[in-house]
């Protein structure tokens, strides 16, 4: 018997998130063993008159490939998949791996090679810029463990989050996006954090289910050399299978001049990947009312109610500050009282305190209004 929640999610992904049109080519990439959602998506693409293509990826196989990869192999792999991506109009990426740490023992130089030679051209440059795309996780026991819940409880949470009325959220985001477009100076304060920068003339983009599921953020980017001060992130984060905690950055004229964490040496290796890795490519404010706590899964964590993320690396084309990098690492600061509180100011006006929007035009984005 089909789970109606899965069919609803598939219909939302195909009809709302990527809005498949007759004759369009749709690539569905599944990392993991889940099949019910793929089959439902294939059905929904067929109803829309699209052409569906499927790639199944096993993380343990990918790990073996990466550990044994040569530069020549990586370039050929990228060439093959880039050619396929160029023929796609839509991309739906589903991540359902059993172990988030599967890639943790791949040598750092191999991961850097993968990020720069494969992921950057295939995904950052082609898929992100030239297809209608959406990326999501799929619930399993591994994710439930990260969220510290039972598998059944996590599935209920997952479908509440992913089948939210994103069209309603989209309208509510207009006020924040418009305000960010008018804003020059931003200041962020809180425990271990006092950061200032400009977003003047960068623009702002709404995220309401068209690119990520779950969703719930509006993003911009700082003027590249305007960032000064310190930020202390309080959500743990995964990068290439390694968990980082207690990350703290100090900026001078846009550049991260000091970086510490539970693994200070390794985080500085990542930030030394290229010149743009020590500059910020994204500033975003998160407000999904159902997501309250980090689970080391950035597709959820960057949407946490009362959070923001401040991202070293590549800028998005829609809010381009000129920063270029092979990395794009979303790092999250939660400002609700249970995480220490904090404030966001736009042009010296307090707009959010302790995770709650405090000016009338933004109150529509508070949890009680979005559920």
Protein described:
It contains twelve helices and 20 strands. By secondary structure, the chain is of the alpha+beta class. The strands form four sheets. It has an eight-stranded antiparallel β-sheet with strand order 14-13-10-6-5-18-19-20. Strands 2-1-3-4-8 form a five-stranded parallel β-sheet, sandwiched between helices. It has a five-stranded antiparallel β-sheet with strand order 7-9-15-16-17, covered by helices on one side. Helix 1 (4-17) crosses helix 2 and helix 4 (71-86) runs parallel beside helix 5. The protein starts with a helix and ends with a helix. The model has no long low-confidence stretch (mean pLDDT 94).
Summarize the structure.
By secondary structure, the chain is an alpha+beta fold. It has twelve helices and 20 strands. The protein has helices at about 5-15, 35-50, 60-65, 70-85, 110-130, 140-145, 150-160, 165-170, 175-180, 265-270, 300, 365-370; strands at about 25-30, 50-55, 90-95, 130-135, 185-190, 195-200, 205, 210-215, 215-220, 230, 235-240, 240-245, 250, 255-260, 280-285, 305-310, 330-335, 345, 350-355, 355.
Helix and strand layout, with pairings?
Elements (H helix, E strand, L loop, with lengths): L3 H14 L7 E8 L3 H13 L2 E7 L1 H9 L3 H16 L3 E7 L11 H23 L1 E6 L3 H6 L4 H12 L3 H7 L1 H9 L2 E6 L2 E6 L6 E3 L4 E2 L3 E4 L7 E5 L4 E3 L2 E3 L3 E5 L2 E6 L3 H8 L8 E7 L11 H4 L5 E6 L19 E3 L8 E4 L2 E5 L2 E2 L9 H4 L1
Parallel strand pairs: 1-2, 1-3, 3-4, 4-8
Antiparallel strand pairs: 5-6, 5-18, 6-10, 7-9, 9-15, 10-13, 11-12, 13-14, 15-16, 16-17, 18-19, 19-20
Helix pairs in contact: 1-2, 4-5
């Amino acid at each position: 018997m089909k789970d109606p929640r899965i069919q609803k999610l598939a219909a939302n992904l195909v009809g709302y998130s990527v809005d498949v049109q007759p004759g369009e080519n749709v690539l569905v990439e599944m990392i993991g063993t889940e099949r019910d959602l793929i089959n439902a998506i294939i059905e929904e693409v067929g109803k829309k008159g699209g052409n569906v293509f499927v790639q199944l990826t096993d993380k343990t196989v990918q790990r073996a490939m990466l550990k044994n990869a040569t530069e020549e192999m990586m370039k050929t792999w990228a060439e093959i998949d880039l050619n396929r991506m160029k023929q796609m109009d839509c991309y739906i990426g589903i991540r359902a791996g059993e172990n988030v740490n599967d890639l943790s023992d791949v040598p750092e130089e191999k991961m850097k090679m993968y990020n720069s030679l494969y992921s950057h051209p295939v995904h950052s440059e082609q898929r992100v810029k030239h297809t209608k795309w959406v990326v999501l996780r799929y619930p399993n026991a591994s994710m439930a463990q990260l969220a510290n819940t039972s598998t059944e409880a996590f599935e209920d949470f997952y479908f509440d989050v992913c089948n939210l009325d994103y069209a309603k959220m989209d309208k509510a985001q207009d006020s924040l996006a418009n305000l960010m477009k008018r804003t020059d100076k931003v200041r962020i304060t809180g425990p271990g954090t006092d950061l200032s920068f400009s977003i003047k003339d960068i623009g702002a983009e709404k995220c309401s289910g068209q690119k990520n599921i779950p969703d719930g953020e509006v993003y911009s980017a700082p003027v590249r050399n305007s960032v000064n001060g310190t930020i202390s992130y309080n959500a743990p984060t995964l990068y290439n299978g390694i968990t980082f905690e207690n990350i703290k950055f100090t900026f001078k004229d846009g550049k991260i001049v000091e970086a510490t964490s539970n693994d200070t040496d390794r985080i500085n290796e990542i930030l030394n990947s290229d010149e743009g890795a020590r500059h910020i490519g994204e500033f975003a404010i998160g407000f999904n009312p159902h997501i309250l706590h980090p689970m080391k899964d950035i597709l959820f964590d960057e949407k946490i109610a009362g959070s923001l993320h401040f991202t070293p690396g590549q800028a998005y084309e829609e809010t381009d500050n000129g920063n270029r990098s092979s990395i794009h690492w979303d790092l999250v600061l939660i400002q609700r009282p249970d995480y220490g509180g904090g404030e966001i100011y736009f042009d010296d006006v307090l707009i959010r305190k302790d995770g709650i929007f405090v000016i009338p035009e933004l109150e529509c984005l508070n949890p009680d209004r979005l559920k």
